Structure formats: structure tokens, C-alpha cells
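Q: Here's a chain of 241 amino acids. Please give me its 3D structure as C-alpha cells.
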Amino acid sequence: MVGIRRAIALLLLGFYVTQFAMTAGLGPDELFACYLGLALVYGTAFVGLAAEWFWARWFAIGVANFGSLILLVLLKVGMEPIIAFVGFTHLAIWLLLLGEGMASRYEYSEATAERWNLQEESLILMRRSVKSAGTFLPFLVLWALGPEPEGMQLAALGLGVGGLVAMLRGRTWGVLALGGAGVLALADGLGVFGAPAMSYLMLTPRGSLMLYGPVAGLLAGGLMLAPMFFAGPIARFLRAR
């Protein structure tokens, strides 16, 4: 059932790529960049999963974690059908991508072993970091690309995206870049730079679900610090060099 489960997960991810892209084109101009960014995040998960990149399953599970968190909103607003649909479809993606059979197509495949030769400890740390990246990146996009973004927010977004790409390419500076982006997002969420930024996530026909800075900034910042688990292995590697 691995092939069928992956096909359904790809179908759901493709739906959200299309949905966010259409919202970017048809929605308010000030939210164009925000929804285009979300479409790119989901598009990355879709392409990576279809291409069987070794880290793609982890990233897609992280994105599914992001969408599943929307279910917490139901505790405040009650059973809103569209919010429930978004949350439960993301939960379905998460469930569909679990299991050793699915992992054997990605991080435990022969192609991954031949090309990357990752040790088990490194594999565990990479898995944690990429899953966190899949969860924090949508929050980072919502926080950084809302109406009238400031230079600090754009800098954090650049550090976050660049750090993730560098980490997946085995560059040690990528972890430091992610940590720097996390510090900036946390500082904004704590009000160090003034009033926290406001982010928007349009989910219902009646309007937008607003994620305020203390939520979006703190969540994005906290999750971006997870790749700092690599600090110890990196230090040992540099000492060995």
C-alpha cells in the first residue's frame, strides 16, 4: 500500500499548492507574497516527495504538522467545517507518510545509502531538523511576508530558507543561519523590536484567521532552533579536521 498511500498524500499536497496559488492570485494584493510563499513550501514538499528525495518525507510530515495544528483553533471557535477540513487533511498526510515501508523509499533507500552514507546518529538528527523545518517554514512565511514586512523579517526569512538549503547540502553554516533566523523571530515574538508583527491565514469564507506575532514569531523561532541539535556533531567534526 506504500504506492497508494504516497499517491493520496501527493494528491492532498497538490490540492494545497493549487489552493494557495489561487488565493495569492485572487486575494488581496498585500497578501500575495504570503500565499505565494505558502504555495512554494507545499510545492517543495510535493516535488520532493514525488522525486523521492531522501529528506522529502520528513519535510512533508513537518508541513503536515503545521496544518494539523490548525485543529487547535476548533477549541476556540467550535466546529468550523473548513478549518476541520484543513486540519484533518493535513493529519491524513501525516498518517499516510508513516511507516518503515515508506521510509525505505526515502531515507533508507539504497540510493540514499550509496550517495550520502549517513550514520544512524546523523540520520536521527537530520530527521528531527528537517521535520522541524517543514513545520516552521510556513509559520516563518506567514510571519515574514504579511502586509508591509520589515527588513528584519525578510532577513530572517532569507536566513531560514538559505539555512535549510545549506543544511540539506551538508553545509555546517546552514545550522548557524537557522539559529540566527530563530533568534530574530523569537525576539519579535517577545516584543524586543516593538509591537510584534501580525500574520494572516485565510481559512474561512467569513475572513482570515489572524496569527499574531507572539504566536507566529514564537512558534517559528522556537522550531528553527531545533537544528541546533547538530551543534555537537559539527564541533566534533571540526575538531577531527
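Q: Can you summarize the key feature?
A: The first strand starts at residue 198 and ends at 204.
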